[in-house]
Amino acid sequence: MQLTPELVKKYIPNTLMEVDGEQTLFDKLVPFFDSAARLLSGIVGDIDFMAEEHRDILLHACVKKAFATAIPSLDIVVTPTGFGVVSTNTIAPASKDRVSRLIDSLHHEAAELLIQFIDVARTYPEWRESAHGKRFCLTFLTLREAVTLDPSCAADCSLLCDTYFRIAGIALRFESALAENYLGCEVMTRLKADTSQLTTLHSQLKTCEIAYIRRHIDGDPYRCPDSHELWHYARPILAELRFYRDIYRLWQDTMAQKFKPQPFKNKTPGAFCF
User: Fold this and answer.
1) Distance (Å, rounded) from C-alpha 59 to C-alpha 120?
2) 55 near 116, Cβ under 8 Å?
3) Of residues 168, 182, 109, the one with CA closest to residue 138
4) Integer Cα distance of 249 and 161 in angstroms
5) Which of 74, 151, 63, 141 is nearest to 109 (CA)?
6) How do residues 117-126 score in pLDDT, each as one tens digit?
7) What confidence tens digit (pLDDT) does each residue in 133-146 have?
């Protein structure tokens, strides 16, 4: 990703032309953009194979985050005697509250753009199979759903990802227990093969998963699901499973035998036993 003056004007339109001898906004943003690009690239990994319009979403997020980080120092200059503040006689200075609101809104916009990008990236098989993609595709939980579970995490890209991975840990334990006790690993793997094509079965599973997370999001993240609670969530998923013949047949071959009651057989000799 590379920053250009055109991108600055495109994504930060409310800027004025610089006067002669003044450093341009583009020059001021370059070091902040490089830092933002390294951060977001570290989150999503290689995206060169994606369509340009999709890569532009992440580029837009980088510009927003860079601008938010740079704002406090944009009007500060270094002089031989110390730091100074650039002033103007024609434009009234913005209040501290307005600047703070602007910074917060830019961080929220960057986080929202990152969510949009991850949603798009999940549709690329190459990304889902990459090391970075697997971190976001281990469970059915999406980045956007993590925000609905903890809205405060949308204030910053780093906080957003940290919160997602914490909540995804709860989701992973739920899915692992569900696979081990009710669905089977084969069925769970089949359902996760392409989460970009969601069915009502996926929706039912995600509804139960989110309900489980809501109950335990403030508790021990390493807690394993209780067996009775797990059955409560598994019942509607197993009911929905019957409407998908191929997946239901796979479930019958791998897990159905586990739910067939075994008839009683008397192994004690003697006529008095029956």
Assistant:
1) 14
2) no
3) 168
4) 37
5) 63
6) 999 999 898 9
7) 999 988 999 999 99
